[in-house]
Amino acid sequence: MAGPAARDGWSRLVAALKVLLPLTALAILSMLFLISNRINPDEALPYAEVDVEERLREPRMTAPTYAGTTTDGAALEVTAAEARPAEEGATGAQAKGVQARLTTPDGQRTDLVAQTAQMSPGGGEITFTGNVQLDHSSGYRVTSDGMRARLDMTDVQSTAPVVADGPGGRITAQSMQLSEAGAGKTGYLLVFNGAVKLVYQPAQ
What we know:
The protein is an alpha+beta fold. The protein folds into two domains: 1-38; 59-200, Sandwich (lipopolysaccharide transport protein A fold). It has helices at 4-35, 52-57; strands at residues 61-62, 65-69, 75-84, 94-103, 109-119, 125-136, 141-150, 155-158, 162-166, 169-173, 175-182, 185-193, 197-200.
């Protein structure tokens, strides 16, 4: 067993630590406060730079998405950078930076991009305008000033002359249509109509 002198020494050490440790902790906290960056109250709560009055005057949605299935089983998805509700006197909602993808049951895929698009008043179709480009899984890339797509069935038609580049060469035509084969046939057809001209370009 420890003698009285040892017990007294231990007691004095414990008493000293009871005073020294809190003082050390207080000193550390004081140093942390001194070396930390001061907080600017004006910068404590950042706010998004949004013009509320402008949003009230011109309501719009950012990155909207539409997804659905046509009656023939094709999957249709349309996205846009920005969409606005129909303005007074306009015929339907409008969108900018539009992309669409149509995947038919037979596995064919059609991708379409356009600068702008407008929904019909009844919501049955979308009209794409401004550097419209359609890429079909058959290998054809079709460009036009305008195209229209039904939302209830697979039916994409151009509203202006088209230029198509593909495996057979370059095709120019007054119109183009992507739809079901019809008449008891299965599958889907990409058809060019009106003053069709093919410039054959043999494979290199």
